[in-house]
Amino acid sequence: MSPIVWIGFLVFVLTMVLLDLGVFHRDARDFRLREAVAWTLFWVVLALGFNVLVFFLYQESWGIGVSALAHQVSGHAAAAQFLTGYVLEKSLSVDNLFVIAMIFVYFSIPRNQQHRILFWGIIGAVVLRGIMIALGAVLIARFDWVVYLFGGLLLISAVKMLVVRHDNIEPERNLLVRLVRRLYPVSADVRSGRFFVLQDGRRAATPLLLALLLVESSDVLFAVDSIPAVFAVTRDPFLVYTSNIFAILGLRSLYFVLAGLMDKFRYLKMSLVFVLSYVGVKMILSHH
User: Fold this and answer.
1) Contact at 8 Å (CB) between 78 and 85?
2) What is the pLDDT of residues 104-135, one digit of tens each?
3) Which is more confident, 100 or 164?
């Protein structure tokens, strides 16, 4: 894909998240259910609209270099791969919302401050997932056996998801949390909405910062599962990255939709175990 298309997509994503925080949700407040549903639908419609653009990008060779035309997939195939990757990533990301909910409960983060943490968590995810997808694409292109490694990783993740509980998070064992506690005193202030405050003349971290670090850490761990799964759908880095980003852009509003319904998703974990196992086996057998 042409660098112009990559830059245009990144500018679009940055513009949308800045408008989200700087214009529509500038003040810290509780997310109402109707508003959360509306924003969730907005992000889904936006992703489906981008899916149409993907069709024309590949069908009409928009933004694809001449040297790449011989390897270009059809618009129909590219659109199907983007949509499949988006739905797969969205499904796997829902499980991450359970962990985020436990983090907020553990640190007693008020609902009107949770939006801020989720926003910065998404900004970090956009950057970190870009790095991880780029590394994964390079590894798959250079070393064919990495496909088997990714497939095995998905099977291990499925087993881990089957036996690991959601309610046993241990923030104090997290490396980033321990590092912050060594560098700064930790204030009990969760109402100011800041990540750092002054306490007895010293700069102190707040529980919001610790919660943000845990949210970012959990996203990296979940990305280890979800990114190889999307690579099983398509090897195109542009489709992998854009489907990932559109899936996580709507997670913040989706969290507030599902926050009061977490106990209703009793079969979610088993469903995701099946999905990860299926994709893992598919990836291992992809050459055959």
Assistant:
1) no
2) 888 888 877 888 888 888 888 888 888 888 88
3) 100
- List the structure tokens of 287: 């050459």
pLDDT digit string (tens) for 183-234?
888 887 777 778 888 877 788 888 888 888 888 887 777 777 778 888 888 8
Report the distance separating Cα 288 and Cα 286, nearest Å.
Answer: 5
Indicate the number of domains in the chain: 1
The two three-digit tokens of residue 58, written as one number: 């590949």
pTM over 0.85: no
> Could you tell me which residues are beta bridge partners of residue 197?
204
Rounded Cα gap, residues 271 and 98, in angstroms: 15
Rounded Cα distance, 5 and 57, in Å: 9
Length of the chain: 288
Torsion of CA 250, 74, 133, 225, to 10 degrees: 70
Determine contact, residues 118/40, Cβ cutoff 8 Å: no
DSSP string, 126-162: HHHHHHHHHHHHHHHHH-TTHHHHHHHHHHHHHHHHH
Residue type, 179: L
Domain range enclosing 254: 3-284
Amino acid at position 242, single letter? T
